[in-house]
Amino acid sequence: MIEALHFEFMRNALLAGLLTSIACGIIGTLVVVNRIVFISGGIAHAAYGGVGLAFFLGISPIIGAAGFSLLISAIMALVTLKNKQRADTIIGVLWAVGMALGIILIDLSSGYNVDLMSYLFGSILAVPTSDLLLMGAVDLIVLVVVAMFYNSFLAMSFDEEFALAAGVPVKTLYFVLLGMMAFVVVMVIRVVGLILVIALLTIPPYIAERYSQSLRGMMVLSVVLSAIFSFLGLWLSYFFNLTSGATIIMVAAFFFFASLVVDRVRSRSGRDSTAPA
Question: Is the pTM of this model over 0.85?
Answer without folding.
Answer: yes
